Amino acid sequence: MRIRRITAYRVELPLHEGTYKWSGGKSVSVFDSTIVAVETDEGLVGHGEVCPLGPFYLPAYAAGARAGIAELGPHLIGEDPLQLGRLNQRMDAALQGHAYVKSAIDIACWDILGQAAGHPVCILLGGRYGEDFVLYRAISQEAPEAMARRVTGYRAEGYRRFQLKVGGDPLEDIERIRQVAAELKPGDRLVADANTGWLMHDALRVVRAVRDIDVYIEQPCKSYEECLTVRRHCDHPFVLDEVIDSMTPLLRGHTDRAMDVVNIKISKFGGLTRARQARDLCVSLGIAMTIEDSWGGDITTAAIAHLAHSTPTDMLFTSTDFNSYVTVSTAEGAPQRQGGRMSASTAPGLGVKPRMDVLGKPVVIVE
Ligand code: MG
Q1: What angle do helix axes 99-117 and 298-309 make, rounded to 10 degrees?
Q2: Which of 118, 131, 195, 204 has its CA 20 to 30 A from that of 55?
Q3: What is the tens place of the pLDDT at every residue in 18-65?
Q4: Where are the alpha helices (DSSP H) in the chain?
Q5: Among this protein's residues, is 268 annotated catalytic?
């Protein structure tokens, strides 16, 4: 089987809540997502998606994804999409770095592999663990009372895990954590995600002030070294996210005992092939995981669901259902959350069929 054509589409994804806000005053109202179709000479078509969290979160931006796909595409025409290891090696040889550019192409080729094999991607990624898996709800940064109200509302919808966007003024962040914690019931889990937003001294004040609260602390500071310093002065369970983007920092973090949980975003690692490698390593090392992506719609959510559902249940800390945050559906067959849980499709491949009327005209065509 050979890749015959690669096309990319640009889709805008507005939010039900209007705006998503996190540390440092960063916010997005309409996400700029890129959907990729990889067509083969045997008629199979696979789809993938990449959607950075704006241009100021990770070193990734939406127009860069499309420029990168146009750059990489000609190197992939004629390649076999079923041989994922070789395909990734080819992408790395043609374009240094830029993991997020490669992600949507890799996901689309997993979709093709699943369709060709007649199995859902989760089976090919290791198997389906349980009936469904657990989700968290991200709580956009607002005043403490407003965040507490959001948690109460999402709790009523069935979510039991909540990730607060903190990383702002430390005194206000302490209030955010306290007021939300007061809303929780036994069995709920709370994560305070600073998204690199605190300096070390502020992070140390926050973790000391909430020592009596059962809360996970996620990525308090920008660098790995700063996070490790906070970790060593903190007795909360600790999550690393932005600084863990490949095997090297993951192994270093394990050696230093720098985290209890890691956040594996598919595009941060460069696609399902590399995210699965990290997932399997974490399973072997006993490191629990949040499995998700930076953002996305139906196709990203489908890819997340296959990786999350194929992860041993006790190793999956949480996952995300981005397609329930946004107002636009880009594909039929995408997984839909039931309360605070979700399951991967049982159809071959990702199990999604793009809505071509929503995708519109392609913005990149390589053949
Ligand atoms: Mg995070």
Answers
A1: 70
A2: 204
A3: 999 999 999 999 999 999 999 999 999 999 999 999 999 999 999 999
A4: 62-76, 84-94, 99-117, 121-124, 144-156, 170-181, 200-209, 224-232, 247-255, 266-269, 272-285, 298-309, 356-359
A5: no
Question: What's the CA-to-centroid distance between 190 and ligand 1, angstroms?
Answer: 13
User: How many A from CA of 218 to the centre of ligand 1?
Assistant: 6
Catalytic: 102? no
Residue ranges covered by each domain of the chain: 3-119+354-366, 124-350
How far apart are alpha carbons 103 and 350 in whole angstroms?
A: 14
In the set 21, 26, 102, 165, the catalytic residue is 165
- Average pLDDT value over all residues in the chain: 98
Domain 124-350: which CATH number of 1.10.10.10, 3.20.20.120, 1.10.3810.10, 3.40.50.1240: 3.20.20.120
Does CATH place domain 3-119+354-366 in 3.10.310.20?
Answer: no
What's the maximum distance between 2 C-alpha atoms anywhere in the chain? 61
> Taking residues 71-81, what's their average pLDDT?
98
pTM of the model: 0.98
For position 217, what pLDDT does the model report? 98
Residue 191 alpha carbon to ligand 1 centre in Å: 9
